[in-house]
Amino acid sequence: LDLALDNDINIEQFEFFVKLAERSMQPEDAVIIVTHVPSWVLSDYEKHSVESLPETNLRELMRTHLNGKVKLRLAGDLHHYTRHMPTDCLDKPTLIVSGGGGAFSHPTHCFRDRIQVGDEKDNYERVCAYPSAKVSRHLSYLNLWQFRWRN
């Protein structure tokens, strides 16, 4: 999905996916949503209120027309790997950030292990991170003192 500069899908995309869901989706179908920005991590990190959460149209699409069908959300942008799993309601999607792609690494230790996602504040727990929090802290420390000499 293209979230453009508004951190949300536009009305044309919304309508397209509504029609696609109504015409083509079967009860047993599953959906993977791929976006650029992992809003679930950044909204928690930036402490957005429910009123200021990004992806209003996308959340409405998932809640109504794709209800229960979204099994995975995948995003990049942050240059590391993390996987969050729902802890309360297991029919919520797995959340993966996979932004390594050969670029420099963003830290993982500055993000919380337990986050709340979306309007309903669904509880998620980070079950995997690369680099690990310990390695991430170490790399960040080295970056402070050795960046100039190592690069």
Describe what you observe in this structure.
By secondary structure, the protein is α/β, with parallel strands linked by helices. Helices cover 32% and strands 23% of the residues. The protein contains 4 helices and 6 strands. A 6-stranded mixed β-sheet has the order 1-2-4-3-6-5, covered by helices on one side. The mean pLDDT is 84.
- Name the shape in a single word: elongated
Question: Which range best describes the helical content: under 10%, 10-25%, 25-40%, 40-55%, 55-70% or over 70%?
Answer: 25-40%
Mean pLDDT: 84
The total count of strands amounts to 6
Distance between the termini: 35 Å
| Structural class based on helices, strands and sheet pairing | alpha/beta
Which properties best describe this structure?
151 residues; alpha/beta; six-stranded mixed beta sheet; 32% helix; elongated
Summarize the structure.
The protein is α/β, with parallel strands linked by helices and 151 residues long.
Outline the secondary-structure elements.
Layout (H helix, E strand, L loop, with lengths): L10 H14 L6 E5 L3 H7 L10 H9 L5 E6 L5 E6 L7 E5 L15 E4 L4 E9 L2 H18 L1
Parallel strand pairs: 1-2, 2-4
Antiparallel strand pairs: 3-4, 3-6, 5-6
